[in-house]
Amino acid sequence: SCVIFSCMGALKTNGCMCNESERNGLCREEKHSEDAADSNNLCHIEKAYSTILSELGEDVAREGLLRTPLRAAKAMQFLTKGYKETTQDILNDAIFDENHEEMVIVKDIDLFSLCEHHLVPFYGKAHIAYLPNKKVVGLSKLARIVEIYSRRLQVQERLTKQIASAISEALEPAGVAVVIEAAHMCMVMRGVQKMNASTVTSVMLGRFHDDPEVRKEFLIRSEY
């Protein structure tokens, strides 16, 4: 029987090729290994939350808090799942050759993220535009890119730049524009406690940066 060293590409040992079922079996083993690692991480996070609650003076054994550390750990894993996702994964089959050079805008994309300074949420909307250079992308994938980078510990300035850079690298368009407007709970729930404050960030690449008229068209059409 074969001894399998990798599930990527041709699988060989001692000159024999592994069949499809063996390859699938190895991939399942790697998936189980990943699941085991995730479970181990979940356990550590759960214990950390239990410690935090105890240090805050709570009784983690009382009924209302019995499963809170586990729930919080699962929530944190979900809220930071973007660390395990890449733009290559989602764009692999969604970029198409198309003779289109006019502006494409997707606006009002909901986003939710965690401020890396206080681990409290900030949320708002992203507006994205790009000028195709013979390539277009499935529109839902722009929202997925926002999701990948927002599901990490973030600051809004970096989030805006990462979204724009990811689109630029994937499509090589003539220009990319990203504007994000968000409310930060670190300014609402604590600190200065300004309920109506919002933060606006923008990144303009290519013609959106170099040509004021192109930038103006985007801002008008996105109603920003």
From TrEMBL:
Keyword Nucleotide-binding tagged: yes
Name of the protein described by the UniProt record: GTP cyclohydrolase 1
One GO CC term, this protein: cytoplasm
Annotated metabolic or biological route of this protein: Cofactor biosynthesis; 7,8-dihydroneopterin triphosphate biosynthesis; 7,8-dihydroneopterin triphosphate from GTP: step 1/1
PANTHER family xref list: GTP CYCLOHYDROLASE 1, GTP CYCLOHYDROLASE I
Domain GTP cyclohydrolase I: 45-219
Reactions accelerated catalytically: GTP + H2O = 7,8-dihydroneopterin 3'-triphosphate + formate + H(+)
Single biological process term from Gene Ontology: tetrahydrobiopterin biosynthetic process
EC assignment: 3.5.4.16
CDD domains named in the record: GTP_cyclohydro1
Keywords noted in UniProt: GTP-binding, Hydrolase, Nucleotide-binding, Tetrahydrobiopterin biosynthesis
Molecular functions per Gene Ontology: GTP binding; GTP cyclohydrolase I activity; zinc ion binding
Pfam family for this entry, one: GTP_cyclohydroI
Protein species of origin: Lates calcarifer
Family (UniProt): Belongs to the GTP cyclohydrolase I family.
